[in-house]
């Protein structure tokens, strides 16, 4: 963090930086906490070489997400929202800032 602070004085957006990271950030956004990482692994598994192939992979993998997986993600979101309420809107440290 010291090096980052030196390179970007007064501009570091982080829980431990100059600009507080808003609590509403990725810990409560299903695309951020689930979808992008999940899709990235699957979409790039066959190393698409063109935009057309990449788009086709995205469509196939989006369609392949099961109802059960969607239910688990929604349950996880529900527990994150409840935890956010318990913490009065503060960060979900154990989710985002794992040690």
From TrEMBL:
Full protein name: Uncharacterized protein
Organism of provenance: Parnassius mnemosyne
Example GO molecular function: nucleic acid binding
InterPro entries referenced in this protein's UniProt entry, alphabetically: RNaseH_sf
